[in-house]
Amino acid sequence: MEFKASESRYSNIPYRRCGKSGLKLPSISLGLWQNFSDFDLFDNCRLLLREAFDNGITHFDLANNYGPPHGSAEETFGRVLQKDFRPYRDEMIISTKAGYDMWPGPYGDFGSKKYLVASLDQSLKRMGLEYVDIFYHHRPDPETPLEETMLALDLIVRQGKALYVGISNYSAEQSETAIQILKELKTPFIIHQAKYSMFERWVENRLLDVLENHGAGCIAFSPLAQGMLTDKYLNGIPDGSRASREHTSLNPNQVSSANIEKARKLNEIALSRGQSLAQMAIAWLLKDSRITSVLIGASKVSQLQNSIETLNKLDFAFEELQRIEEILK
Ligand SMILES: NC(=O)c1ccc[n+]([C@@H]2O[C@H](COP(=O)([O-])OP(=O)(O)OC[C@H]3O[C@@H](n4cnc5c(N)ncnc54)[C@H](OP(=O)(O)O)[C@@H]3O)[C@@H](O)[C@H]2O)c1
């Protein structure tokens, strides 16, 4: 059926400025790492994307290797774009990345100019786009000179294939050096995509300060620790969950008793706040204004709706934060 976006789509989600750039992102964004592959039902993928956009989620995050197989999430997104989203392209921020293993041989991995330029051309074809809004280098490359990788990002912007660039999974020190190079080149670097959740707090150490000092934003990925910061695993691994399925990224061993014990205690606090654990985990990240957006995943429309409802209660009492710290110690 023809898609007509909800008239009220901009009434719900606050938009946050990405560092000191001109770009604003929705405080919740949707990632297509999982649940949009050739193994997932296309109709469900389409519903998820429509529901997100109808609720003001304007930012969709992809990467060349999202699937499986590699590239299939971009193809799925391209199909939905073609069927539903064409009239809305200018209302969307679409990002993709290159940096992980993508194709055989020496030119399909890490951070050479050869890989980044070729990969983005492939991504654009798969999605049926002329440009992406943000192009990321997905992970640091220990061998390629950083100047080469950053010059490739710069070239891509000057070719008109991306409007802005970002980096992902770079340490605070690596980010500092990369940003210096991009500043000299006057490349529109605006964002770092980093793993950040109640269970994974490395960014608090120095990265957020570095980004703030340079006027860059931060988008927090896997905010629900792939589902462990929801009530899903409190009583074991349910059928159909990410940890139970093949071709996914969550190993059942990662659903450790230590993590689940913490999740149980956190869940009690969430319930006393009148929230789901997922909602509290998202709100906990958004309390820091340096976090531009929280980049969630979802396998069902009901999960997406639950996560969006986080926005009804973002504030924390001081005692709640203290109790959370005690549990996370
Ligand atoms: N830059 C990088 O290196 C990198 C790496 C990883 C991810 N990312 C980005 O971050 C995005 C999000 O990552 P993620 O999928 O790991 O995020 P996540 O939000 O931590 O986990 C999403 C999963 O949690 C469960 N879930 C979501 N909402 C729920 C709710 N309200 N109630 C109960 N369960 C809920 C679902 O699991 P079930 O499937 O079990 O239902 C869903 O697939 C990715 O799509 C990608 O764009 C980037």
User: Which CATH architecture is right?
Assistant: Alpha-Beta Barrel
- Largest beta sheet, briefly? 8 strands, parallel, barrel
Q: Total helix count?
A: 10
Which cofactor or ligand species appear?
NADP nicotinamide-adenine-dinucleotide phosphate
Secondary structure: number of strands: 10
Shape: globular
Beta-sheet strand percentage? 15-25%
Distance from first to last alpha carbon: 50 Å
Quickly name the level 1 CATH class: Alpha Beta
- Give the helix level as a range of percent: 25-40%
CATH fold type? TIM Barrel
- Could you give the order of strands across the largest sheet? 3-4-5-6-7-8-9-10
Order of helices and strands: EEEHEHEHEHEHEHEHHEHH
What integer is the average pLDDT?
Answer: 97
- SS-based class: alpha/beta
What is the CA-based Rg, rounded? Answer: 19 Å
CATH homology superfamily: NADP-dependent oxidoreductase domain
Number of domains: 1
Q: Care to describe what's here?
A:
37% of the residues lie in helices and 15% in strands. The chain has 329 residues and is α/β, with parallel strands linked by helices. The chain has a single domain (15-227, 290-314), classed as TIM Barrel (Alpha-Beta Barrel). Strand 1 (15-17) and strand 2 form a beta hairpin. Helix 1 crosses helix 2 (72-85), helix 3 (113-127) packs parallel to helix 4 (146-158) and helix 4 (146-158) packs across helix 5 (172-185). The longest helix is centred in the last third of the chain and has 16 residues, at 257-272. NADP nicotinamide-adenine-dinucleotide phosphate (NAP) is lined by residues 31-35, 61, 138, 168-169, 193, 221-227, 230, 232, 241-242, 278, 295-299, 303, 306-307. NADP nicotinamide-adenine-dinucleotide phosphate (NAP) binds next to strand 10 and helix 9.
